[in-house]
Amino acid sequence: MSEVKSVQHAGGGLHDELHDHAEHHHDHHHGNFWTNYVFSTDHKVIAKQFLITGIIMAIIGIGMSTLFRLQLAFPDQSFPILETLLGKWAPDGKLDPSFYLALVTMHGTFMVFFVLTAGLSGTFSNFLIPLQVGARDMASGFINMLSYWFFFTSSAIMLVSLFVSTGPAAAGWTIYPPLSALPQSIPGSGTGMTLWLISMTLFIASSLMGGINYITTVMNLRTKGMSFDRLPLTVWAFFLTAIIGVLSFPVLFSAALLLMFDRLLGTSFYLSDIFIGGELLHYQGGSPILYQHLFWFLGHPEVYIVLLPALGISSEVISVNSRKPIFGYKAMIGSMVGIAFLSFIVWAHHMFVTGMNPFLGTVFMLFTLVIAVPSAIKAFNYITTLWKGNIRFTPAMLFAIGLVSYFITGGITGIFLGNAALDIPLHDTYFVTAHFHLVMGSASAFGLFAGVYHWFPKMFGRMMNPRLGYIHFWFTFVSLYLVFFPMHFMGFGGVARHYYEYTNFDFMSNFGDLSVFITISAIVGFFGQFFFLANFFGSIFWGKKAPANPWNANTLEWTTPRLPGHGNWIGEIPTVYRWPYDYSKPGVKQDFLPQHIPAEEIEWEEGFQPETPQPEVVPHTAPETVDQTEEKEA
Amino acid sequence: MLEAQSLIQLAQIILIAIFVLVCVNLYLVFRLKEIDPFKKWNPHAINGGLFMVFLIVGLIAAVVSTQEYDKYFTLLYNPNSIHGVEIDRMMWNTMFVSLFVAVVTNIFLFYFSWRYRQKKGRKALYYPHNNKLEIIWTVVPAIVLTLLIFDGVGVWHDIWAEPEEGEEVMYVEVNGKQFAWTVRYPGQDLEFGETHVSYINEDKGNTLGFNMSDKNGMDDLVTYEMHLPVGKKIDMKIRSRDVLHSATIAHFRVKMDAVPGMTTHFPFETRYTTKEYIEKFNKPEDFEFEMSCQQICGAAHNNMRLVVVVETQEEFDAWLAQQRTFAQFYEDTNGENPMARFADSEGEKKEEIEEAQPASETEEVALN
């Protein structure tokens, strides 16, 4: 309990007290196993909890995708492994059509919410915000702990829903009613969907508690000198992500709540005029379109909730490993703010052909294509950061570069889909699947990998094996391109998403061998992840001991000891004197210049005259004299 | 047979086990003796080089595979609707812009990664920003996107424009349910009868929910194939009686959700009959336009196929004349004439029926 108290007091004027405490603490752990590792309020422990839960959910989520890929590639074949794993859902090794939809749905839910929202944002916001802004912990360690345990409960319920007798939710990860509201329409809309909604409610609560904490910490607990224009781009990204989350997740909550009412209390928010399973239902006057509005009001910002942290991480990783300042720091912040704002007014581009008034489509098309501009700026700035750098290929750097490639390739197809007229043919085809899996799925997953490889030394005090990291990268990078690039072809072929098999339509049945190719690539990519798992869990115990600052990076987290204890810094929190991207600054002896080094302690190269305020006056006078001479000559 | 298979399996397991053991042994030996066989490998050169290899091989593979699959790109070529031509034109413009940007930026990304890989003695350039560059790559994408937006808004607006006065529009209704499409034509009176889910009576074959006391519905034609006259403005009404569906005719660039509780629509005009389309674009003899469902709707979502036939006005009229009206269908199925109730009712209604009678007679004549 002493830990909890010290955190709660950490707000003000306690540096000295904490100094003693932290030093003391570093030598031997207070508290017991439960308070240290399970119900911990330390942001670093909570971050690791989020990460490991996220990894487990990712294994299940990606595993599901390989199962339904088997069905898509070999619709006529039976796989005994399916029956072993899925039992009654795959009689004779052939996937049940409605369970195929359940797998697709749960794959989406797991990956979008549990892996790329909680696993990515939850891990790195928690881990990096206090360390990079110079705080002892989050503003509220207790709420932070609750945030994790709500997430844990939510994950547990979602996992339980896989085992109910009618199967898990099967209406797509967007769970559009009426399909999601009526158990008659698909078995997954029974208990499975109820559990889905309960789980998601807890998830939203978790996400809100986390978000409020991140925002408060960034606003209030920055160390001396850490002004907003000296924040690392990671923190900017997490900060904006948290704001988006806090503003949009409650809307998903209301959508889920109304759906729950429709399902359990017989209200008609989303349902009207329905005859199903041979009987007329009583629902009158609701609108499924209302649900879509509410869902996408979160759903679209959600895309950026997933993507922005990844972009923040890649900004940091690319700058550190190029040994160059990130190009256009302020433009990067500006474009992230722009993306964050615009993400709230583009949601209906998911609904161009759902029966929404076409006039609305025009408006949303305008905003949607506008959001491409800040995204383009970001991509160009990454590339310019690499230009004339001194690029060090750590595994994290490889993943960050891979992220930029996915971000470009996947993002560019957004200008097809954002255009309402082009969305008519492309909507709900594999083109959409390809688009968001590249730009949101793969890019964000690479952000997660880059973050893990980069900050692993600070998380666990040991290095990951770089060679396994390289192998993992090339496996993943190539296989993901091989999986998702051909999907554009299927999209142009008009092949619909969510199809159990394509054999019923002549124009869709030409892509059989391409499906096989995609499935094989996906399975290879899936097995490539074992290099990561082995590396990750192996290195926790047997990795090489890490130095305090293995990457020669500037940000504050690397000024902590090798394995920072509770309170992060032994002694005072460092003061910040500069922005975080002074890499390869001319005249400085080393190629990095940490944020906490004051001007008088900088080691200059021999013979280099550091700039002093005086020389700046010279250019001002010089032109005047020139002018005078010119006048005289004239 | 079985024994041979299990032997092979056993052999595989043993081989894998040997392989794993060898790997573990090598690892332990290297670790204990502190030998690093890959020490001389420079990760910067290898990874940087691999990026270049990936770029070149990837671009070649992309070009080759695109050519291979080009013939299957239904959504890029030969639209069979007037608005589809506009959509395809814009699709290709967007394609050129986006391919150009994606290829060029990816080339720079991978080339720079390789070119500026870490080397001894290299120092990175301190280059934190350049306002001119940043303004250029803010403004240029903004202009390009503005052009695309204007084009897109124009095409989008034209698709949804109200029909001009005097323009003849043919209405057809497509009804989605789990898991089939049903088509309805308004019949002689050119007006759809009232339908509502509460009137549905599956036992009597009233699957669309005709209001039996609305005479307009009695001459409606219910079919399970959609026939359309070529070159005529068509407004397709779309409805659903259970969950969301999406009426998609890929070759027409038509797609609109079917939403229970409301009627959506999609206006379009076809360019070629099915026969002309087959001849013009070398399609196989048995080629058919197909309507699919592209909004997840349940277990047999992939099974909602409706054949769409485009034909000349004469062919269409002939086909339509062969279809039974709802009243006839109802009588044939249930043995009771739904028109009888209109004859029974008094006053005004009788007159209406008398007016309507010739219409149904002519239809019968047409049938004969």
Strand order of the largest sheet of chain A: 1-2
Sheet/helix structural class of chain B = alpha+beta
Largest sheet of chain B: 5 strands, mixed
Per DSSP E runs of 2 or more residues, the count of β-strands of chain B stands at 10
The percentage helix of chain B is: 40-55%
The residue ranges of chain B in which pLDDT falls below 50 over 5 or more consecutive positions are: 349-368
Strand content of the residues of chain A, in percent? under 5%
Helix-strand blueprint:
The complex is a heterodimer of chains A (634) and B (368).
Chain A: H1 2-9, H2 15-27, H3 33-38, H4 43-73, H5 80-86, H6 97-133, H7 141-160, H8 191-220, H9 233-264, E1 275-276, E2 279-280, H10 288-322, H11 329-342, H12 358-370, H13 372-386, H14 395-412, H15 414-417, H16 420-426, H17 430-460, H18 466-492, H19 512-542, H20 617-633
Antiparallel strand pairs in A: 1-2
Helix pairs in contact in A: 4-6, 4-7, 4-19, 6-7, 6-8, 6-9, 6-10, 6-17, 7-8, 8-9, 9-10, 9-11, 10-14, 10-17, 11-13, 13-14, 14-17, 14-18, 17-18, 18-19
Chain B: H1 2-32, H2 43-69, H3 82-115, H4 131-160, E1 169-177, E2 180-185, E3 221-223, E4 226-229, E5 233-240, E6 245-249, E7 254-258, E8 264-269, H5 274-280, E9 289-293, E10 306-311, H6 313-322, H7 326-334, H8 340-344, H9 348-367
Parallel strand pairs in B: 1-5, 4-10
Antiparallel strand pairs in B: 1-2, 2-3, 5-8, 6-7, 6-9, 9-10
Helix pairs in contact in B: 2-3, 3-4
